[in-house]
Amino acid sequence: MFRESSAEILAPAGTYEAVEAAVRCGADAVYLGGRELNARRNASNFNGEEMKKAVAYCHAHGVKVHMTLNTLASDEELADAAQRAIRQACQAGVDALIVQDLGVFRLVKSCAPTMPIHASTQMSVHTLAGVKKLAELGFTRAVLSRELSLTEIEAIAAHAPIELEVFIHGALCMSVSGQCLMSAMLGSRSANRGLCAQPCRLPFAAPGGTGNDLSLKDLSATEYIARLSQAGVCSFKIEGRMKRPEYVAAAVTACRKARDGETDPVLQEQLRSVFSRSGFTKGYLDGALGRDMFGTRRKEDVTAAQPVLKELHHLYEKETPRVGVEMMFCAYEGETASLSVKANGKTVFVQGDTEAVKAEKVPLTKEKIENQLRKCGGTPFEVTVLDLDIDENISLPLSSINALRRQALEALYAEIEQTKMHTFSPLNVKNTVKKVNKTAVFARFSTISQVENLSTDVKNFILPLAQAQPMNGKNVIAELPTVFFGREEKVREQILSAKEKGITCLCAATLDGVALAQECGMDFMLGLGSNVFNTLSILHAEDLGAKAVILSPEMTLRQVADLGGEIGRGLITYGRLPLMTTRNCPIKNGTDCAKCGRSRSLTDRLGISFPVRCFDGYSQVFNSRPIYLADRKKETDMTDFAVLYFTTETAEECAEVLEQYRTEAPAQGEFTRGLYYRGVE
């Protein structure tokens, strides 16, 4: 049997064979998805009956199942597909749902109130304040952002009111999860909708860089499991629902051995062979950012896998005993033998059909009985307690003892694979479309230098938190950093400083920012990055206390027009969208910060340039061209406000765009209509 531990090894499963591989190699839990609304829609995934089968198998082996529902959902999907998925989870008896969308979260709480909900890493939560906010909302676990260091995780874990889960092995995205629009903008395949095309794995070159400066090596940090477990992290997640069962088997075995204090250099090399990108990295855990974290899937990486697959298959080809069973065997002269078996709180009693008789020659011994009863091969059981109560000098065929054992264990398996189903009640999702009288304009600036000597009738300015200050005739909103890894206290101080200056409202991209705004007694709106994609997420924003929301730029105009809710909602109608938010600046692969000037660009394989800007502790990669909808104002007037999202523009260029929007001028130069017409898959 595997050694029990409080540190959960959480394995990916895109197929039933991967479920078997995970369970037989010692995973404590698996996560998998249905056919709809999960972040790996290209995996095989599970229909309703397959899900029930997988959950029953896992539960019979003492393994939990977490089902992913971790994508953004439209209003139409909330009324149909999302509820089908929640019903499927309830009927299968899964142990928790993993959720990104606050609208989906609201739906689960309504339809299945007893279902535990885990906050997906797609929610971008990366601070203690954010984790506390999740707990307040009713989440039972937070899957932390992969960009956190060991010390940052330890600081959160020391005071976290709910369970924490971290990624410990598998692919690393360049962007903070939940903050990536690259695949959507370049090809309509949304990472927030489970269909990321991974364009970041293609060549994007920084001057003097690697040539693939958005492609990170895979994470492998199993040696940190013990330290993080001691700090209070309860679950260690392996990425890879689209990978083959041999990979799952190798990764689970490596994590389990590391947790148990074992080292296996041969297995580590096999793990590298079965899948890696130029080897492995410790990721952000050890804080060693930079060029060494980057890598691609090379020809030698691909060819290295084939020789080890057969050997790794042996890791899971047979059942592994992992469920301890207590047995009580009774045999008395003139009576049929009986066997009682107990495991996981379930007890089964079976009676044989052969009577024990007085032995004429060799009597039945306890040693012989024990030898037969301990033969549990091909099952998940291992006898941990065995009591025998037999008369002396009796005889009983060994075949009847074997039959009793098989019958009892089969009945016990059937008992413990039974799952506790959650109650499901459908929700009638009907929206009352909000009527908008007039669309205001909000101008968002990346630096205060863009507003110097700016003359405009626009009344609403959004300025960076560190630079925000009251302005005559303007409603100034302070924009919090998109992320602030390890800088929670500094951001808190900046908020209080802005408040002292007279700023009353903040713009927050994540629940981390929402939590700090509320803690500091500030009004707030949800900004770009908050992924408001449906009416239920707007209603949840209202419940949070938000004064307004900036809608997801992945919505179509038709979807925007059909939204309900009462609070103000805005649409970005101009600007270069941040395609990625990253803690590992790609420009540093070719130069240092002193020479960079915080303003460089990446070039893709077609020669197209993507600006990169660095902020305090993170960088953003912007689209090569801005959204432009000044000449489509009548088609975008269904929102309370339009956001002009200035990023790389000079003060003069900002003034020019503001004038173009005032006059509804046609676009000039390169531009995009974004996803408002074509949408995302």
Question: Which key terms come to mind for this protein?
Answer:
681 residues; alpha/beta; TIM Barrel; 21 helices; 30 strands
Protein model, in words:
By secondary structure, the chain is α/β, with parallel strands linked by helices. The protein folds into three domains: 8-172 and 217-285, TIM Barrel (Alpha-Beta Barrel); 323-416, no CATH class; 440-575 and 627-663, TIM Barrel. It has 21 helices and 30 strands. The strands form five sheets. Strands 18, 19, 20, 21, 22, 23, 24, 29 and 30 form a nine-stranded mixed beta sheet that branches. The chain is elongated and about 110 Å long. The model has no long low-confidence stretch (mean pLDDT 94).
Which helices and strands appear, and what pairs or packs with what?
Elements lengths: L7 E5 L3 H9 L4 E5 L14 H13 L3 E6 L5 H5 L1 H12 L3 E4 L2 H10 L5 E3 L8 H10 L3 E3 L6 H8 L5 E8 L11 H6 L16 E2 L12 E3 L4 H7 L3 E4 L6 H15 L5 H10 L5 E2 L17 H5 L2 H8 L9 E9 L4 E8 L2 E10 L1 E2 L7 H8 L7 E10 L3 E2 L2 H19 L23 E5 L15 E5 L10 E5 L8 H14 L3 E4 L2 H9 L3 E4 L8 H10 L3 E3 L6 H5 L6 E8 L2 E5 L10 H4 L2 E6 L4 E6 L4 E4 L4 E2 L12 E5 L5 H13 L18
Parallel strand pairs: 1-2, 1-10, 2-3, 3-4, 4-5, 5-6, 6-7, 7-10, 9-11, 12-16, 18-19, 18-30, 19-20, 20-21, 21-22, 23-24, 24-30
Antiparallel strand pairs: 7-9, 8-26, 12-13, 13-14, 15-17, 24-29, 25-28, 26-27, 27-28
